[in-house]
Amino acid sequence: MSDWNTRQSLLIRLKDKQDDQSWEDFVKFYKPFIYMIVRKMNFDHHDAEELVQQVTLKAWRSLPDFNYAPDKGRFRSWLSRMSHNTALDVIKSRQRYTNRLEKYKNVDHFQELSDPEIDKMADEEWQTYITNLAWKNVAPEFSDKVKIAFERSLKGDDAEIVAEDLGLTKNAIYVYKKRVRERLTEEVRKLKEELE
Questions:
Q1: Which helix (H) or strand (E) holds 120?
Q2: pLDDT one-digit tens code per residue, 66-112
């Protein structure tokens, strides 16, 4: 993440459609987030991948004219609404042109969401995404035993059992957990500052 500028500067750079590096940075970072949003809407992997491509293309078309105004809302909410609307358009299109896709006619499968519901979903998925990205960034800093101890403690495994399994002391498990949690919290805070 250290080679990225803040999201605001990235959004400014994306006004130039010819800036391939900025676009690659955008796709590298936001494509997994868009995928998470679309999957949250009950699309299978294949359909989600197709929708991510459509949302990405819409973003590419829209971002040169996009003016970020933090006081009016978060960028991730804008991107989530675009994802939701694109998904809804695809469903309506499929309903209109084919009867073979009965699963998309089921009201329980996909429901239109209000803006507050989209914002809530976006915030929840964003927190998960940022935490996962932070873990991916800091995990290489720790030994395998430390990572295993931390991950098992998150699952609620008993520290004494984890210590025995890893050939460590119970106290070491607590120390490792605290050390990783502090580093992970620091990385989450950094990512939020860069990307919020």
A1: helix 115-138
A2: 887 777 778 888 888 899 889 888 877 766 655 544 555 554 555 56
Find out whether 186 and 135 touch, Cβ atoms under 8 Å. no
Residues in contact with 105: Cβ distance below 8 Å, sequence separation at least 6, in sequence order: 95
Does the predicted TM-score (pTM) go above 0.85? no
For residues 83 and 174, what is the distance between their CA atoms, to the nearest angstrom?
Answer: 41
Q: Which amino acid is at 134?
A: A
Q: Residue 184: phi, psi to the nearest 5?
A: -65, -40
The pLDDT tens digits of the residues spanning 137-170 come to 999 999 999 999 998 888 888 888 988 989 989 8
How many C-beta neighbours within 10 Å does residue 5 have? Answer: 13
| DSSP per-residue string spanning 42-108 | T--HHHHHHHHHHHHHHHHHHGGG----TTT--HHHHHHHHHHHHHHHHHHHHHHH-SS-GGGT-TT
End-to-end CA distance of the chain: 14
Phi, psi for residue 7 in degrees, rounded to 5: -60, -40
Q: Which domains does the chain have, with CATH numbers?
A: 1-140 (1.10.1740.10), 142-196 (1.10.10)
